[in-house]
Write a structure and sequence with these properties.
The protein is mainly alpha-helical. The protein is 49% helix and 0% strand. It contains nine helices and no strands. It has helices spanning 13-22, 26-39, 44-51, 55-66, 87-99, 103-106, 113-124, 130-139, 156-162. Helix 7 crosses helix 8 (130-139). The chain is flat, with a radius of gyration of 33 Å. The chain starts with 12 loop residues before the first helix and ends in a 20-residue tail after the last helix.
């Protein structure tokens, strides 16, 4: 059987209980109370009962507590996948968005996420979904704002000629048809 892992000696049971009382993280409080049981001389099985886990998990908690201290018992956010674009590629994307599309070259009059994903594929050979491109642009400080498209040859006079002037589809009922209030 392996030797038990010793707990740090710069914290005692009452200090860990005080920390558990003031923390805002319920999971950290539960872990600190289990470790306080170990500090007070209780067995790892007793600490496992206090923490609601198995003795093997208590050993893992002790190891994580010994390295950074009580802060090591807070659940951290997982780092997630690394970005596929590096800083130089992000700057090139930002410069492209700032310049805007050239209709004769890019064959579009405004950037769409699909167009930018296609440009990234052609330029860098990196396949990104539209959602990922949107996330990258948002991280660069851009927001998706879309103006209502207008045709360049729009003529207001012709539009007003074709507008129909229909009477409203509803009419006010006569006074005799309304039910009496109760």
């Amino acid at each position: 059987m392996a030797a038990a892992v010793l707990l740090r000696d710069d914290f005692d049971g009452p200090a860990l209980r005080r920390l558990a009382r003031v923390t805002k993280d319920a999971a950290q409080a539960r872990r600190l109370l289990a470790l306080a049981e170990v500090c007070d001389g209780g067995s790892r099985s007793d600490a496992a009962r206090v923490g609601g886990v198995g003795p093997r998990t208590i050993r893992d908690w002790v190891l994580r507590f010994n390295a950074p201290g009580p802060a090591g018992r807070i659940d951290g956010k997982a780092p997630g996948n690394a970005s596929k674009l590096d800083d130089a590629q992000r700057q090139a994307l930002a410069a492209l968005v700032e310049r805007g599309p050239i209709p004769a070259v890019h064959e579009v009059v405004r950037w769409r996420l699909a167009d930018l994903a296609h440009w990234i594929w052609e330029e860098f050979g990196i396949s990104l979904s539209e959602t990922t491109v949107s996330r990258e642009l948002r991280a660069l400080g851009y927001r998706k704002i879309s103006a209502r498209p207008r045709h360049y040859a729009r003529n207001e006079a012709v539009i007003n000629e074709y507008k129909k002037d229909y009477p409203p589809s509803w009419t006010r009922s006569a006074k005799g048809f309304r039910p009496e209030p109760r």
